[in-house]
């Protein structure tokens, strides 16, 4: 019979990249964990993982068992929470994944605020270059940009426009672009991320009456003068006068307010990159995840992308 310790073992192996890392997470020795894994495989009559000196990889059967084990553990946690007399006393581990830049600046303080309100929780915040679709082991994922082909539920927390910006020094020396055609004549800074075509910028003119994009879509193909995979570096280069940068509102708003950057072509709308919260379907959702959803919708929704 499969025991809860077996489910915890499988779920941990799904999260960790090596047997030693899984052993540390479960507070046992690697040899003890290896013995437990072999015994579980013997009971199931299946090979759950392949092992090398440096890495452990789950087999197809092992990955299925681990994902089902993770779901079962979540359901057990949810059952325990539903039996608590005071639903506000949340307990257990809450795992959140977010992108590096937005995670450091905005998610981290919000998670700290949420944790202070629920001292019974253990909170784990992991920052990644691309938390979606890579990190399915999280309980909640904050993603910036469009979400496609997901079985998880996506909730938009903020619209988060992309702003075209440059430093006052650069604009004084090279002029202010007014139309999409002007942009291609300027030095442009690009951020390589999410396997997107970062040299193709899509834009639509805003209606003067409503402020919403209403004109036909146009595209601008640029040749990057500078490129990086770090958004903070791209913004810094723009502040130092190297060129135009297309950056998320959440990242550019403070620099614009301080006068380090100037937003240009505000009467044109570039593709939005909405800030989205991804959570499992309701059947696999715990009370602590539901509380996080309500908290983030309230806090980010009230104050926008720069909350």
Automatic annotation (TrEMBL):
Q: Which InterPro entries match?
A: LysR-type_TF_proteobact-type, LysR_HTH_N, LysR_subst-bd, WH-like_DNA-bd_sf, WH_DNA-bd_sf
Parts forming coiled coils: none
- Note the Pfam families from the entry: HTH_1, LysR_substrate
> Which segments constitute the HTH lysR-type domain?
2-59
Q: Which domain of life is it from?
A: Bacteria
Give the Gene3D superfamilies listed for this entry. Answer: 3.40.190.290, Winged helix-like DNA-binding domain superfamily/Winged helix DNA-binding domain
Tell me the keywords, alphabetical order: DNA-binding, Transcription, Transcription regulation
**Region feature (Disordered):** 205-224
Q: Name one GO biological process term.
A: DNA-templated transcription
MF terms in GO: DNA-binding transcription factor activity; sequence-specific DNA binding
Which family does the similarity line name? Belongs to the LysR transcriptional regulatory family.
Protein name per the record:
LysR family transcriptional regulator
């Amino acid at each position: 019979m499969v025991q809860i310790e077996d489910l915890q073992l499988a779920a941990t192996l799904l999260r960790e990249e090596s047997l030693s890392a899984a052993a540390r997470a479960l507070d046992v020795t690697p040899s003890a964990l290896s013995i437990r894994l072999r015994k579980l495989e013997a009971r199931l009559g299946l090979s759950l993982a392949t092992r090398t000196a440096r890495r452990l990889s789950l087999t197809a059967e092992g990955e299925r068992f681990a994902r089902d084990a993770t779901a079962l553990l979540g359901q057990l946690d949810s059952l325990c929470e539903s039996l608590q007399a005071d639903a506000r006393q949340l307990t257990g581990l809450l795992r959140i994944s977010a992108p590096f830049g937005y995670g450091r600046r905005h998610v981290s303080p919000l998670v700290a605020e949420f944790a202070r309100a629920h001292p019974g929780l253990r909170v784990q915040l992991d920052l990644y270059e691309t938390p979606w679709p890579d990190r399915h082991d999280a309980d909640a994922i904050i993603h910036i940009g469009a979400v496609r082909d997901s079985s998880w539920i996506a909730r938009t927390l903020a619209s988060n426009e992309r702003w075209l910006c440059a430093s006052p020094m650069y604009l004084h020396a090279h002029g202010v672009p007014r139309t999409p055609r002007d942009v291609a004549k300027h030095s442009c800074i690009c951020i390589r991320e999410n396997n997107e075509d970062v040299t193709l910028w899509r834009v639509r003119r805003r209606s003067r009456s409503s402020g919403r994009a209403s004109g036909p879509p146009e595209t601008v193909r640029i040749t990057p003068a500078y490129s990086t995979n770090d958004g903070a570096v791209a913004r810094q280069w723009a502040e130092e006068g190297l060129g135009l940068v297309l950056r998320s509102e959440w990242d550019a708003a403070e620099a614009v307010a301080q006068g380090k950057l100037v937003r240009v072509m505000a009467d044109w709308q570039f593709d939005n990159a909405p800030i989205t919260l991804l959570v499992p379907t309701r059947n696999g959702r715990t009370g602590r995840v539901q509380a996080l959803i309500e908290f983030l919708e309230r806090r980010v929704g009230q104050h926008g992308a720069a909350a």
